[in-house]
Fold:
Amino acid sequence: MNEAFFFLISTLFNLYLMVVLLRLWLQSARADFYNPLSQFVVKATNPLLIPMRRIIPSIGKLDTSSLVLALLVATGKVLTMQLLLSGGVSAGTTLFGAIAVLIKEAFSLLFWVVVIRAILSWFSQGRNPMEHLLHQLTEPLLNPIRRVIPPVGGLDLSVLVLLVALQFLEILVQSLLKGLL
Structure:
């Protein structure tokens, strides 16, 4: 029963963290604000971000308040799990764990956005507003790969190369983070 409860709490934190990270990504990519997915992300994050923006200014094009909110959500997850598992809190472990959670969820979000975009491209033929938004998010990552590895026989391998690179980077970062502990 405890495992199911921990799973539920972890999943809820992770999902909201992905929404916050998606908002940060949408803003940095200057994606279509009026897209239904963008509107969902904005409405889900505005209750926390609007008050934070009064205190935390943006730094250039970086939406600092979204980044701080993502770090706060990751910290909330780590604190909640520490309290539920051990009943105590360690400040160093909490901060380091929050950064690790943030990085892991950023990789996970990127992975799933690329996979969903690839699957949609097989079926939708470009008339789907979600596909258009995913295209805006992933093209800056896929275009440099296409310059090096052009489509072969009509098959675009850039998505596969990006997914393998993402998995490699995620494993590398996790091993580096474990080495720091």
Residues 2-180 form one domain. The chain has one domain: 2-180.
